Every structure is written in structure tokens, then in C-alpha cells.
Amino acid sequence: QSYCHRLQHDMYFLTSTSRLNEQVVDKIVLQLNRVYPQILTNEEAEKFRNPKASLHTRLSDLLKHLQKKGDRHCQEFYRALQINAEQLFNDLPSRKILKTPDPTEIDTDKEQYMLNDRGPVFFLACFSVAAGLALFWYCCNSETQVIGRARRILGFSPIIIGRHVRNICMLYLEDISRN
């Protein structure tokens, strides 16, 4: 992105109230007047430092003038802004756009832990549910005759699963054994 486009994008941010004070604007204009190659002539510098005009008007005119002059002039403005108002320079909207990563780019550090962010308790809970469902399915299969053994295993289930779940399983097993 060219500096002229960036300056166009940052113009509202820079000209809004209380972003830049008169001293900082004067320092920027003086630096643009004294830098090599000279960005602003002496007449232009006097025009943009005129205390009779409002700060908003002078700053807007300066930014428009620099955009007309070209990319090199806009680049020098950004350099002067960085030297004289570094915090404001870092807060510019165009700088924030440049700092944000590409949303399509894959973050390899985050990708490594994508599946492991739940921890061991989540794994044990999922494993317990899977084991319980497998046991339940095995006990309900009509070809197997292990209901007596399943009752013994489910008899110790208050240690593993809740009392209500154990009661439901025991009632189901008794109902199956009657049939």
C-alpha cells in the first residue's frame, strides 16, 4: 500500500480533535521544511504554520498538499510523525492494519494444541462414557448370557457412576432377565 493511500486512510484519524496539538504540527512542518530533500518550501511552511487559521484547517490542507505531491512526500510526513509523536504514529489505523496477521495464515503454535486443549479430565470423561456404552451394549446383546456377571460389575458402580444411573441400569438388567 502506498504512503498516499495510507495517508488518505489516516486523514480522519489525524484531523479529529485533540489528536495533534499545535506544537507537534509545527514541529512536523518545520521538519518537512528542513529535511533533505526539502518537502515543503519556506512559503508553504509559513502557510501551514499560520496561527490565524485553525489547527484542523491547517492540518487538513497539509495532508491534502502532501498527497498531491506524491508518495515520497507522504513517506516523509510519516517519518516526521514518528519522530515527533511516536505514540500517535503507533495508533494510526493504517499501522494497525499492517500489524494484523493474515486471517488465512495458519498459526502453527495454535494448531499443535488444537486437539489437546481440553486436558486429561475431558479424556477420562469421554473414555468413561465410551466404556459405559460398550458395557451397556454388550449386556443388552441377546446372544450373550452374561447378565449375572454384569450385575456383579454394576453392583460396584456407585464408585464409578452415580447412584441414579446405577439404579436405571439395574432395573433394565432385571427387566431383560425376566424376559
TrEMBL record:
Quaternary assembly: Associates with BCL10 by CARD-CARD interaction.
GO cellular component: endoplasmic reticulum membrane; mitochondrial membrane
SUPFAM superfamilies registered for this protein in UniProt: DEATH domain
Signal peptide: none
Keywords: Disulfide bond, Endoplasmic reticulum, Membrane, Mitochondrion, Transmembrane, Transmembrane helix
Domain CARD: 38-96
Lineage summary: Eukaryota, Metazoa, Chordata, Craniata, Vertebrata
InterPro entries, sorted: CARD, CARD19, CARD_BinCARD, DEATH-like_dom_sf
Name of the featured protein: Caspase recruitment domain-containing protein 19
Cell division in keyword set: no
Subcellular location per the Swiss-Prot or TrEMBL entry: Endoplasmic reticulum membrane; Mitochondrion membrane
Gene Ontology terms describing biological process: regulation of apoptotic process
Bilayer topology term: Single-pass membrane protein
Transmembrane segments: 120-138
CDD domains: CARD_BinCARD_like
Main subcellular localisation: endoplasmic reticulum
Coiled-coil parts of chain: none
Organism: Mohoua ochrocephala
